[in-house]
Amino acid sequence: MILVAIVAELMEEYTVLLCRLVEHLFHEAPFPRRIRFLILSSLP
């Protein structure tokens, strides 16, 4: 049970990190606004 909690916590941190990275990439990359909106809205 402790292992499950650790894995869940790691996944949560990884997801947050991934979201930040994706967000940073989108702010840097010159994507058209509509495509950026579509991709961001499709994220959970």
UniProtKB/TrEMBL annotation:
It comes from the Eukaryota. This is Uncharacterized protein.
